[in-house]
Design brief:
By secondary structure, this protein is of the alpha/beta class. The protein has eight helices and six strands, in the order βαβαβααββαβααα. It has a six-stranded parallel sheet with strand order 2-1-3-4-6-5, sandwiched between helices. Helix 2 packs parallel to helix 4. The protein is globular.
């Protein structure tokens, strides 16, 4: 549900991969502004500026562990300046917590002293939550961040697998029916032919394995840019890998 959300700032990470996929789908379906930022501290301050400009809470999505600690400076500013902002942090399920690794810390307590609320999804994994219960949590997050404007921390324990296959993604998106995940780029193309090209020309690629697509700045001729973009869309739709 979109309560008036306009901006999402997404930081890269492994545990937060399912949240990144969801953010991409939401951004395309509801025409949200999706920004990516490598550094969590900078991402949080960027979102803080968006909150000042719009008066509505932007969302910052991070992975688990030390990434969450980098949100504290902006959370303090948000608290004292009464600027709404929502921090959604991916976390490990309870079975993987407190095992000594730096990504298994009690991150749900990092922002507790400066946030309006810390809202915790089920410790064993968000998949244990029914959709109606999740909707209640979403309502609570949005209400808490705007009732007395300030930061809210929504902590999301996510169980593996973190990288759903393209088939699994389709099952989720078709249940929700957003246009952006109906694979419209390949509806009028021969998928088998395209896949065979990939297999024959790039035998080192294993399309059944998780992966990501790294794309640098365009260095070719301007007249070829559109065909490059179309090819990139087709490749992403075939593999299901995030760009």
């Amino acid at each position: 549900m979109n309560k008036g959300l306009e901006h999402i700032v997404l930081c890269p990470g492994s545990r937060s991969s399912p949240l990144a996929l969801a953010a991409g789908g939401l951004a395309e379906e509801f025409k949200l502004n999706l920004f990516t930022a490598i550094d969590e501290r900078s991402a949080a301050f960027m979102a803080l500026g968006l909150g000042v400009a719009t008066g509505k809470a932007p969302i910052v999505i991070t992975t688990s562990g030390t990434a969450v600690s980098n949100l504290l400076p902006a959370a303090v500013e948000s608290d004292l300046s009464c600027i709404p902002i929502i921090f959604i942090t991916a976390d490990r399920p309870a079975r993987l917590k407190k095992c000594g690794a730096n990504q298994t810390v009690d991150q749900e307590n990092f922002l507790k002293s400066v946030t309006r609320a810390v809202i915790q999804a089920p410790l064993d994994g968000i998949h244990h939550l029914q959709s109606n219960s999740l909707s209640v949590l979403v309502e609570e997050v949005w209400r808490e961040s705007h009732l007395f404007p300030g930061p809210v921390h929504f902590n999301f324990p996510i169980e593996e697998p973190l990288y759903p296959s393209i088939t699994e993604q389709k099952e989720v998106w078709l249940g929700w029916e957003p246009k952006s995940f109906k694979n419209e780029y390949l509806e009028n193309k021969n998928k088998t032919h395209l896949k065979n090209i990939l297999i024959n020309d790039f035998p080192e690629l294993n399309l059944s394995e998780p992966g990501c697509i790294l794309v640098g700045p365009w260095r070719g001729k301007q007249k070829n840019l559109e065909s490059f973009r179309e090819t990139l869309k087709n490749f992403q739709a075939l593999t299901g890998w995030p760009i």
